[in-house]
Every structure is written in structure tokens, then in C-alpha cells.
Amino acid sequence: MTINPDQIVLFEWGWFKINSTIFFTWLVIFLLTFGSWLITRKLTSEGELSRWQNLLEVLINGINDQIREVSRQEPGPYLPFVGTLFIFIAISNILAIVPGYVPPTSSLSTTAALAICVFIAVPIFGIAHQGVLNYLRQYLQPTFFMLPFNLIGELSRTLALAVRLYGNMMSGTIIVAILLTITPLIFPVVMQALGLLTGLIQAYIFAILAMVYIASASKAHQEIEKKGEE
Question: Which of 43, 111, 148, 188 would suit a FRET pair with 57, their CA atoms being 20 to 30 Å apart?
């Protein structure tokens, strides 16, 4: 039984290969792009709103509220990145109910790529918020000797993001695959429903952790300044 979607080759031509991870990642991206265009092409602020626009506004308002609660800042600058992370992971996991579909989030290469995006986004938002020198100064706190440990901390939390999402999604895939071979149909269906719930929770946790890291990078200089004033 092949569990890792990286090992499932769907198309091969010489050195060029498309495995299950790449194919289903492209599929999710296409669905999100087409769905976004379909929902937003007739947005209106007057009259009766469509069900899709209502759903979109509820989703955006919910993400904004979570960003505001976590960061204590206006969500505008962070919404595109954090919202995209959440929606991509959530849709990738929800589509697991489709027969033959393998969630790209059950591949370490996908979760590592998402974690690297967060790793890059943290200094970008931090520098945009407080400047290059002020952002880099936090790595020297409380003393210069903490620099290597602070850098290791940045790398370790990136690794933790990737492994956490990968481990949870892979374990769910393995459990359902085993149950399908040894139990009647009804029990795997229940596990599949629980798997969908777990997938949504994992999307939420990943997005929240990404926002926590970004918010901490943005607030670090403010806390240093307050200590200096005291």
C-alpha cells in the first residue's frame, strides 16, 4: 500500500514526472482560483446578496476577527497571506472525501513548502512593521550571545510547523486506509468524517501559529522600546 503521495507517479516523460502531490496541489490551486473568480465577479453592496457572497463575507470576517484577536492589530496587511494559508490547507483536506483524491498536505514536501512560506513571511512583515535594524535587533536580545539560539529557534519552529501538519494528515490517511481493509463500510465513513474535522482544525492551527509568529515579530521592537523607556 502506497501512502506517501510523492511516490504515486501519475505522468512520466523522460526526466519529467508529475506525482500525486503536484497534481492535486495544482488541482486545489485551480479550484481556488476559479472559485474566487466565480464568487467575486458579481459582488455587490446593495440589494440581496448571493449565498456565495454571504459565505465569503462570513469567512473573511471570521479570519479578520481571529487575526485581530491574535495580533491586537488591524488585520488588513495580514489577511491575504494568513487567509490564503487557511483556505488552501482547509480545501486540500476537505477534498479528501472525494474518491481517488490524496491530500497534498499528507506529503512532507507540501507542508515543508508552506512552513517555508511562513519562515519567509515572518521577517518580511517584521521588517515592514519596524524596519530592518529594529527587526534584527531582537535576535540580540537579551544579550549578543543569544543570537545563535534565537536563529535556531526560528528554524526549529519552521520544522515544527511542517512536521505537525504532515504528521496529523499522514496519520489520518493511514488509519482510514487500515480500517477500510479490516472493518465494514460504516466505521471508515465515521472516521472519514472525523478526518474532515481534523483537517479543518489543522488548517486553523497552522494559520493561527503563522499569525502568532508574525505578530511576535511585529511586536518585539515595541516591547524592547517600552523596557528601554522604563
Answer: 111
Measured CA to CA, the distance from residue 72 to residue 53 in angstroms comes to 27
Supply the range of the domain harboring residue 65: 5-229
Q: Name, in order, each residue with C-beta under 8 angstroms of 21's C-beta and a sequence gap of 6 or more.
A: 5, 6, 102, 104, 107, 109, 110
User: Which band of pLDDT confidence, cut at 50, 70 and 90, is reported for residue 91?
Assistant: very high
Q: For residues 10 and 53, what is the distance between their CA atoms, to the nearest angstrom?
A: 36
Using a 10 angstrom Cβ sphere, with 0-12 exposed, 13-18 middle and 19 or more buried, the burial of residue 200 is middle
| Nearest CA-CA partner of 172 in 134, 152, 201 | 201
Give the CA-trace dihedral at 107, 113, 114, 116, to 10 degrees.
140
Number of domains in the chain: 1
pTM here is 0.80
Over its C-alpha atoms, the chain yields an Rg (Å, rounded) of: 21
